[in-house]
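Objective 1b. Sequence-to-structure analysis of HTH tetR-type domain-containing protein.
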Amino acid sequence: MDLFREKGYSAASMQDIAEVGEVAKASIYKFYSSKEDLFTAAFLVCHQMLLEQASELDRSGMPSGSSPKEKLSRKIEFNLYYVLENHSFMIDFHELPIMENEPFVDAHKKMKTALLTWRKELLIETFGEQLEPYVWDAVLIFQGILHEYMNGVLRKVISLPIADLADFIVDRMEAVVQDLIRTAPKSIVGEGIVRSNHLERKDQEARKGTVRDFLTAMEERIQELPLSEISRMELKEVVGLLHKEVLMDKPNLTLLRVLKAHLEAVPELRSYLRQLKLLLT
């Protein structure tokens, strides 16, 4: 792990690893068939250590009498330091060929799921069960904030001490959570966001479910438009036909173009059709 930390995935060779471990290169291949397999194993250990050490903070690493917000801040501080010290395993690999290695991709998805679940638990522990209806939206916001500030520190464009940055993030998340609870918006994502980490683009049934939900949202938007009831019914019928056609194994492309052209005549629906195109590609 130290060699990958020092050199990164691309620069570290199996010969380098053998020399650091003071073993013959052939000996490594008895346990790992490739550098990708070895990096995958190190990646899993690195993430498991993150979660184990985070749990240890609860047992023995928190000052007595710490408030829920103070506990969250210390865990974020730990998380930030851990990622910065292990960025080769946490961030840097995303643009590398290793992301085309199936065993690594599977390991990466499992760790993403574990991290999402951990962050959900952190938010519920800190802000209470009243967050539950919106918790996965809060988790995605939390994850985005962490990711961007981590990158800022890595690029050396943020000079704020890590402990202060953690406090800042907690205060921002408190504002987000309070707003979610106060305004009670319709949740955008649910627990399916966790399951989706294990889905491939080729998982047609799961993607069809997303398309169905999206077209239902389009129908709801049509109902809100300042149109006559007859016009709204006509548009919903077109969406119904579109719905039926896009879910077929071999949709009629000519019919799809006609249906979309009809809907595009309504300015308020053009952004929906643009997004639908992205969902179908």
